[in-house]
Amino acid sequence: MAARCGAWALLCPLLALAALAGLGAAAKNSEDVRCKCICPPYKDHLGQIYNKNISQKDCDCLHVVEPMPVPGPDVEAYCLRCECKYEERSSVTIKVTIIIYLSILGLLLLYMVYLTLAEPILKRRLFGHSQLIQSDEDIGDHQPFANAHDVLARSRSRANVLNKVEYAQQRWKLQVQEQRKSVFDRHVVLS
Asked: 43: number of CA atoms within 13 Å, CB side?
C-alpha cells in the first residue's frame, strides 16, 4: 500500500509537467482571449454585457456590440458610455493547477484510507491486543498521572517512532484531562 502511494506521489507531478509541456506548445485557444464590453442603461434600453473573441486592436464597442440596440444616430453616444476591456487568460495554467490540486486531494484521500483501514490492522498485528491505548474510563480520576510511569517504561523498552508518538499522545491526553479537571474545579469554586 505504501509503495503504491509513493508511486502515485512521484507520478502525479510528472503528469502535471507532461500536461504543461503538451498544452504549452499548442496555439492560444479562442476562449483564452476576449473583449468584454459593459454597457450601462441608455434611454429605454437596459444595460448589458457583451463578450466576443476578437483581437486586441478590434476591442471596442463598434466591433463587439452586435446587434446594436440603438438606431444609427445614437450609436456614437451609446458606445461612448460602454466600457470595453481586452481580457486574456492562460487555460494551460488553470488546467495544470487543477491537476496538481486533484493530485494532492487524491493523495490525501489515499492517506485517509490507509489510516482508517490499514493502520489499525498493522498495529494489532505488530503489538497485539494487550498494548492498545487505554480509553478514558481506564484512567483513574484521583491520580491522572498514575499510569504515566507505565507508559514511559513501555516506550523506553520499544524504541521505534510509532511508540514514541503513542507515548506523546497518551501524555497529552493525561495533561488535557488534568487541565479539564482543574478548570471545572475552579469553575465550581467560583460559582
From this structure: 7
